[in-house]
Amino acid sequence: MSGCLRIAFYVRETEVLGPHKRFALWVQGCEKNCAGCIAQSMKDPGGGETVEIPRLTDIILSVEGIEGITVSGGEPFLQARELCELIRAVRAERDFGVIVYTGYALSELSGVLLNEIDTLIDGEYRETLDDDKGYRGSSNQNIIHLTDRYKDCYDYGLGRKTEFFISGDKRMMVGIPSESAKKLWEKLQADDFEQQ
Ligand code: SF4
Question: Dihedral of CA 162/19/21/79: which sign?
């Protein structure tokens, strides 16, 4: 029997969370308490919404032109079994690459989800070590290639890139934000507040 994932949201296509065009999924729930976390709304394990894995699989497979999926959150490893089920179902149909952002260090992790990941970005976000470099939030975090799939694909000279999605009253920021992107995001949220 298929399970459910508790998710915060997803975007069907992004170019700022790894190489190539990717589906991006943010899972809901995180036990850590990183100062400066920009994903506060994704920490409550009872927040977000639950989605049946076959439905999410169909949504991902319906997107043309993407090379893989990036999973962030929240904490992906709190729903490792369900994520495994999702990734295996998608990969049964298409050759998808998988990138995962986790707040745990690789040395703290074990289990089958690791076998499904091509590239892992590990470690807590530490605001004091935020060096504005691309693809990870702070210098203690590591971009670890668990397979060769993306080994030569990361262009570290690109720096940080962020996308903003605005649809009706919904606003989403995607990517590791630079200081200027964080300020713009705060302004967008303040504008949202003024409209209420
Ligand atoms: S691990 Fe990520 S989501 Fe969790 S508190 Fe730290 S920055 Fe926020």
Answer: negative
